[in-house]
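Our preliminary data section would be incomplete without showing what the modeling component actually yields. Below, a chain of 318 amino acids is followed by its predicted structure, encoded as tokens that our downstream tools consume directly.
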Amino acid sequence: MKDFMVDLTEELARMELFQNASATVLHAVAESAVPLKLVKGEVLLSPEQENRHVYLLLSGKLGVHFGFVDSPEIRELNQGVSVGEMSVIDDTLPSAYVVAKEDSRVFPIHRDLLHDMVMDASPMAGNLLRLLTQWMRANTQRILKDRTQIWELTDHANVDALTRLYNRRWLDNALERLLDQAAKGMQPLCLLLMDVDHFKRYNDTQGHVGGDLALVAMGEVLKMTVRPYDFAVRYGGEEFLVILPNTTEDEGVAVAERIRQNVAKKVVVSAEGEPMASLTVSIGLAMAQPEATPRSLISIADAQLYKAKNDGRNCVRY
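Predicted structure:
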């Protein structure tokens, strides 16, 4: 037991929250609770449930999602960080879902203990934390609202009228710049090229109006599935393209699979409100190399898309 407490105290000392904390504080926190194990996919925090703890991430990874638990991840949390502070400090429901991305360990610190430690240090520090938290919560809500307005107010010359995604003109102006930024910053960039499977057949059976509604549904899926800093484009006809800045191959595959699954689950509704035939997509993925050009990168993604079609469609190839 003594060795366990020593190991736990050393783990806590490596957390961002306890940098330069005294041994007395670390020991008191270590004695207050035991680490919790989370399995991949388990929800740690939810806007639907009161939170009484700040959680320290001892190992593993967590994902942060706004709006609903299956929404695109807006942030990844790694070992050493803490979550739940805002809801604990200002005594409100969490503002986001926090979900285990892999099997993880967290250490819970009850809000009463945290409050006592802060107030022992300085009542003014407690007041300052509460005010800062209120400001951060309001700012987060404004960012989410601004993100929606950006979509609505984007220059119409750069937006496809049917799907409300970026259009080919925007892509021609933006992709080279994004590749240049990635190369200069030595950051990965991933590109997805996708095609609605058997779309001609869909048009023939559902009519051109039905085909248009299917493309609108594709736009809705992409806007809801890609992350806030990604770019979704109607490349032409039933082809779509997504640019994923600062994204590794594994992360890109995860986004592509999420798109593929969400398209398959999407209900396409007719003008009369009746459900129509569902859709599937084939997706090709390409990673940008330092010397990549827009043409070469899209060509690689197109080759992978062709492979996905040859492999039976409704799949991701990279």
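Residues 308 and 317 are 6 Å apart (CA to CA). The first strand starts at residue 36 and ends at 38. Preliminary results of this kind motivate Aim 1 of the renewal.
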